[in-house]
Every structure is written in structure tokens, then in C-alpha cells.
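Weekly sync, protein design subgroup
Attendees: M.S., D.O., the rotation student, P.L. (late)

Item 1: inverse folding check
M.S. brought a backbone from last month's batch and wanted to see whether the design step gives back something sensible before we order anything. D.O. pointed out we never logged the input encoding, so this time it goes straight into the notes. C-alpha cells as presented (178 positions):
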């Protein structure tokens, strides 16, 4: 809220009004100043957003939302002993009969697969199978963050494979188990 008030106050600072500029020039200067401010705020907010790194996704229009991972954080934080929700909307480029999901954590050079109770994405994760090329799909589910997991920073990789073993989705992101 304070940031919003400061932004409003700085859009057209009083020093521009005291220059006795013509109304047109004053408006132009104030609008440019405001545009620069909002551009800067946009860059700063993007710098703090979670960075999803692509590792071979082949689908179109991929949008991923992870519970515990709001837009304004640089690291997803997953509380120990709770569930983390995953939602991915996408449009496959090719048809598939079935799909499986895989989650892995990287700690340094060590990759550890998260145990998946139901890796079948059709049904358990909400995919409509068989999937048709060009028709939007939504993958949605939860993963248990066991209290036995160590409280460390990790790199999580989310993968979705079709029935031929081809990668549909592959995204990684920084996370921390707390």
C-alpha cells in the first residue's frame, strides 16, 4: 500500500509544476515520468518472480501454477508435512493415449525422484485421455511434502511424458522445504 502511495506521488512531482511549463509540456513530462515509474515497477516485479526454466517442453501455451509459489517470490517455499498443489494448462502439439507425471529434486549434482502414489496423469491428475493435438488440457493435483524430507533448498523438475516416452512438459524451478 505504501508503495502504491509513493508511486502516485511520484508520477508528477511538484518540481515539474513549478517550472511554469505549458500545460501540454507539463502533461507530457508528467506522463513520461509516470511511464518510466511503471516500467521500473514491472521490471522489479519480474525480477522477483519465480523463474521456471524450460528443459524440453514441446507443448504450446504452457502456464504453470504451483501452490506455495506466489508470483512475487524467487523461490517456492513448501511447508514440511503439507501438500503442494500443481496446475499446468497447455495445448499438446501431438495426440497421446496416456501420460505419466514425474517430479524430481536436484540437490547439487544429485537427482532424487519424488515418490508418486499415482504417476498416471490421465484420471488422477485430471488429463483427458486420449489427448488430442491442439485441444487444451489441464493437469491438476497435489504432492505430499513429507515431514521426513530434509529442510533444504532444491531445484524441482516437473515432467510429463506421453505414452511413447516423449516429453510433453519439462520445467524446473528453485524451491525450499521448510
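Designed sequence read out in the meeting:
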Amino acid at each position: 500500500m505504501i508503495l502504491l502511495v509513493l508511486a502516485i506521488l511520484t508520477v508528477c512531482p511538484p518540481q515539474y509544476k513549478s517550472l511554469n511549463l505549458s500545460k501540454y509540456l507539463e502533461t507530457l513530462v508528467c506522463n513520461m515520468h509516470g511511464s518510466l515509474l511503471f516500467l521500473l515497477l514491472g521490471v522489479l516485479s519480474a525480477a522477483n518472480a519465480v523463474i521456471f526454466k524450460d528443459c524440453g517442453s514441446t507443448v504450446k501455451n504452457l502456464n504453470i501454477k504451483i501452490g506455495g509459489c506466489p508470483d512475487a517470490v524467487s523461490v517456492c517455499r513448501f511447508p514440511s508435512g503439507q501438500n503442494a498443489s500443481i496446475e499446468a494448462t497447455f495445448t499438446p502439439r501431438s495426440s497421446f493415449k496416456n501420460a505419466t507425471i514425474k517430479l524430481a529434486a536436484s540437490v547439487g549434482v544429485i537427482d532424487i525422484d519424488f515418490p508418486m502414489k499415482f504417476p498416471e496423469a490421465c484420471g488422477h491428475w485430471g488429463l483427458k485421455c486420449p489427448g488430442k493435438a491442439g485441444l487444451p488440457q489441464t493437469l491438476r493435483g497435489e504432492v505430499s511434502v513429507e515431514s521426513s524430507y530434509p529442510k533444504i533448498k532444491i531445484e524441482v523438475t516437473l515432467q510429463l511424458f506421453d505414452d511413447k516416452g516423449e516429453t510433453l512438459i519439462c520445467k524446473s524451478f528453485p524451491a525450499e522445504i521448510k
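Discussion: The chain has two domains: 2-48, 53-177. The chain is about 20% helix and 35% strand.
Action: P.L. to compare against the previous round before Friday.
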